[in-house]
Each structure stands twice: as C-alpha cells, then as structure tokens.
Fold each of these.
Amino acid sequence: MASRRSTDPIRARAKSEPGGTKKPSVGVERLLRVSVVLQEALSLEEQLAHVLDAAREDVGVDRLLAWAAAPEGDRLIYVASSGLSEDDRLSLGERTEIALAKAGAMANVYRSKTPLVVDETHPLATYSRLKPPYSNIKTLRTKSFVVVPIIARGRLLGLLVADNKYRRTP
C-alpha cells in the first residue's frame, strides 16, 4: 500500500500530460541511472560514490564527502566522496578517522544534529576549527563549506560535507 501511495502523484501527473507520459526530469533520469548502477555487485563505498556523484551534480557543488559516525560515537570515519582532485584524494587517504575531540565544526554538527553553513557571512569560530594533525590535511582545508547530519530513525549515522573549493563560489 505504501509504495502505491508514493507513486500516486507520479501516476496522476502522467495521466494529466498529453499522451499520458512525460519525459523524466534530468534529476529523475540521474536517479534512475544511479538505481541501475546500485543493482550491480559493487562495494558499499562504490555505491556511495555513485550516489554522491549524482547528488553533487544536482546540488551544484565541487566536492561532497561522506563521513560515518563510529559505533562508539567517538570519531568520524571517511567513507566516500565525489569531486575530489587527485591531490585531495591522496592527502585524505583511505579510511581516515578523525577523533570528535579534534573534528571542529564537524563535531559541532555531530553533537547538535543540526546543519552548519560556513562562509564569509557566517565565518567559522576559532574554537570550531580542526585540530592538528587533521588541520594539516589538504582535503579538509576550506574556508566555505556546509556540513549536514545524516539521520535515520532519530540516530545520527554520519555527516555530509560539501564545498566549492575549486571554483571558490558561494
């Protein structure tokens, strides 16, 4: 029943269109392509990378990184990304972990479960900056970014971090 209800608006719109069908929007087409890719035998990281690619393109940001919350709740674990340059990918490495005590703004979002926008209008407070050695990782250094918590059933699963580091646009 739930699946029928969720498709009813789509069906109603299709019926109202001349000829009964409508070409899917670019976003819907991209989502359909991603869903086909996700049916392949890919690792979780590869699946996430495809989803992040589609999301990054739709939102219009240069880079998008996914961080998982460690089961113990004491650190963030890098999982996947989209849009990173080769230099940034190498500086981050694989499975980088950041202790919450040193995670700065990401730790603030983790604890509050509320999104954070950092830009010229909303600068990052000094106490919210990454602490060494993480502050020296090139990939994590940016002056303007957004951090969004990933929450499911009231539980924080991780964070999405997006920026326009390469274009330097809002």
Amino acid sequence: MHKFFYLVIFLFFFLSSKGQTLPKSEQLIVVTTTNWDVNNGKLTVYEWKNGKWNALLTDIPVVVGKKGLAWGKGLHNGKFNTGVLKKEGDGRSPAGIFPLNQLF
C-alpha cells in the first residue's frame, strides 16, 4: 500500500436516545490507520454544524486490535468487505460503520 494512504476503519455514529436514524446523526468518530495490519492509528471526532462536518478533536493516538483490523458486520454495504473478515478471537478490531447508542 502507498505509505500516504489512510484507511478509514471506524465510522462511529452517535445516535441520540430519542431514536434518531443514521442520516440525522450529528456526531461521528473516525479512526484511521496506515494499513490493515498495524495496531495503532489516529482518531478524529466530527460534529455536523452549519451544513458541514467540523473536526472537533484531531490526531488522537489510539490502539486497535493487536493484529490490526478486519471487516466486521456493520451498517456499511457488505460488498466492501473484501479481504480479511473479523472472527471472534482473531486479535483484530472490526472495521466498518457502527452505531453507538450510548457511551460509558
């Protein structure tokens, strides 16, 4: 892979407790890594405001699975799941689009 290529691995949507649907989400977390097999990356938090996505927090160091990433079953179209697929106990974090209804 090209060394400047960043793969978007997680698109976490914060959904309000009022039952908003995905298109009405106003917050988003994106984690990027340099490739599928690294265990670290960067996190960016966005908020939808004034008709565009605005970065609130950027380049926060994160750790993903010890063996990197693999496609998980998320809200994204399954046709994008090419390559390694997530299996329980494989040491990889799931990649894809996932809703977060609440955080702790």
Amino acid sequence: MGSTSRDGDCWDFCRGILPDVSRSFALIIPMCPPPLDSALCVAYLLCRIADTVEDEADLAPATRECLYDAWLAAVDQPRDPVAARSFREAWPSLPAGDEGRLIEGCGRVLEAFASLESDLTGPIRDCVEEMVGGMRLARPVETCGGVQFLCTDLDALDRYCHYVAGTVGLMSSRLFAAHMAPAGFRPDDAWMERGRRMGLGLQMTNIVKDCRIDAARGVSFVPASLVDLSSGRYRPTPAGLGILIRHTIGHLREAMAYVRAVPPREAGIRAFLLGSLLPAIATLEVAAADRQEQARIDRAKMGEIFDCIGRHGADNDVVGEWFERHCSRTLAALG
C-alpha cells in the first residue's frame, strides 16, 4: 500500500498479492489514510480466504466445515503459527492460481493482522466471524438444468449479500467512525445501516455483472423466478433484470447517502467509497442498456469516474448529480 509505513515480509506479501486477487480493491484501498489502508488490505485478504473456502466446489462438506473451524481459530489467534499451519494443512489440495498462493501465504496475512492495533483488529475479527457464520447456513437450493439457484427470492438474496458483503460494510463503517471520531464525527444507527446497504448494493452489482459466468459454473445467485429457464442459457428475463437492477439501485442510493454524510475533509475515505460506488452504478447502466453477457465499463469510463472523484470528491452536489444521472439513465434503459 503506497500510503502505509508498515514494513516486513508479511506486509510485502499482503501488498503484493492484493492486486492479484482484487484489482479493484488494490486500486482504491491506497486512497484511504493510514492506518485504514493497512487495515482494509488485511481485512480484504482475510475475507477472501473465507470466501475461497466457500467457493471451492470440490470440497466435501465435512472438509469445508473443518476449514471454517480452522480459519476462525487462526483469525482468533493470529500470533500462533500452529493455527495458521493447521488451516493450511487441512486443505486436501490447494486451489489453483492466486487463491492457492493466498492460502499458502495465510500465515503472513495473519502476521500482518496481528501487528494491527487492537481497535482495528476487533471490527475485522467480528466481520470474519459473522461472514463465516453466514456461509455455514444451509440455503435452500433449487436445481434446474444442472444450475443450482442459491437464493429463492429477493429477501434471500439480501440475506446472502449481507453475509458476504454487508458484514464488510459494517466493519468498514466501524473503522471509519473510529478514525473520524477525534474530529467530532458521531455516527448514528442510520449511517451504519447505510454502510451495510452499500455492501449489499456492491455485491448485487457483481451478481448482475457476472450472472452468466456463475451459471456457466453451475450456480446462480439470481432467483430462478427472474431467469429464463427455457433456453438453457439462464440469463435473467428482461423483466427479471429490471427487478434485480431496481432492487440494487435501492441499495446504492442508500450508499450515496452514506458517502454524503462523510465530512468533506475526509478526502481519502470519500475517494475509497466513491471508487466503488460510482463504478457500480455505471456498470448497472451498461447491463441495463446493452444486456451484455458480462457487463463491463471501459477504461475511458473509469478514467471519467476517477477524474470526477479527484476533482469533485468533496462536493456532495457534484458527485450526487453524477450518481443520479447514471441512475436515471439506467432506469430509462430498463423501460
């Protein structure tokens, strides 16, 4: 992380692998002031390891449960190298690619985590524990054509997104609030809830963007009632896509109110948040307008977004107008 002063092999590993497992977070985390940049880097990697346990399709249920137990024990005792080794050795075989490298280096992530101040580690540990608890919940599964539909309706989708992303929104909000407290920032319950809703909106944007990729690997987070089951391609119907995108925009509008409440003097925190929020609404616009197989915003659009953040990130009127303009375009494209 460019703005952190932390040194050592464990931090070199964390900074080095972050772009390999998440280019988007690697781009925006350095915008945060220290020590938030370090805390968010480690928090993302800890959560990504838990997510890898959930996503690895070849794991037997008993093995997955063993890995969850081992990972929670390691996060609870990050200074204990035995705990990290036990988690690593519980894997029958490491995942391929960068996720496997991350698991292999989990001890260095835990070492970096242990070096953080206690007011940072508490929210992160709570996040990982609640996330894993949610991942362990049995979710109703409807299977059609070899695709497992993991969320039965929008309420179930909200619950899923809470555990994998709303928990991160709450954790981040706790970190931000503590950082801003000396300058007089006092969050209320509504602000914390909007931080959680931001996590839901960002996760649902990813689901919209990647629904075809997910279906190709045999899973769908989009409820079956919103999907065309007849063609075998399992894309959302036009009406289903509209319902899903409108629902997502509802969360993202709460996220915009959350960002607007962050004082303008907190330029780094606002840039970090806007660096996720503005690309999300731009992605939904592409999905609504083009009905693409995998909605992506191009490099020029990303340049426009970060130029807006750099020039106007402290101005609620300008960033709010940019956001609402793209909301209106997205809704108009849906008809």
Amino acid sequence: MENALMVIFPYLYEGMWVFDDPDTNLVKEPFVFGIPEMINVLTKNTPDAINGFKLIFSLKPFPGYQEHLNWVREDYEGNWYQLEGRNMEGWLCPALYKYFDKAPKNIFVKAEPK
C-alpha cells in the first residue's frame, strides 16, 4: 500500500533540479524535460527554494495543494504530465515507479520551505 502523502526534498545542483531519497536508493536524481519549468512555477513563492524545499505529492487532492498534474501519455519508459490550467508538459522518468505501482492519472503537489 502506498502512502497517502509522500515527500521529497528537491534542490538545485549544478543548474539542475535534483533530489535524493535514501529509501529508494536515488541520489541526485534529476528532473528533466519540462519538469524543471514546472518546479520553477511551483516554487516561485517558496523562500530559498534553490537550496532545497519540501515537495509534498499525492494521488488525491489534499489541503493546500498548489498544482495538479494530469497524465498525458507514456513515452520511453517514463510518463508525460501536463500542469492543469497551463500549457506546460513535463516527463517523469521511471523513478516514478519507486513511488507508485503504475503511472497515476493525477498527481497533486505542494512546495513548502524546508
């Protein structure tokens, strides 16, 4: 069974948004192909986000969520998502499956200071 809310702590490393998660053996796992731009939107009001922030995400809406990602399509073992209400798409790599058994149709997210 998956947690209802999950948390990672992305940070900027050599110009790329990355995160570490010892529970899943991910180290400096990069966000690529449109996701960095989505993170920039998400963190625009998060103080000192470049030095790290808390990213809460869930399959279901939760109090205070900021953005909603809608699944678009599978591609190269990863999945494309669109930021709801914006003309922005981003690709989440197969590391997504470290958190979900299958690519979710919806991901709700919130950025908070560390």
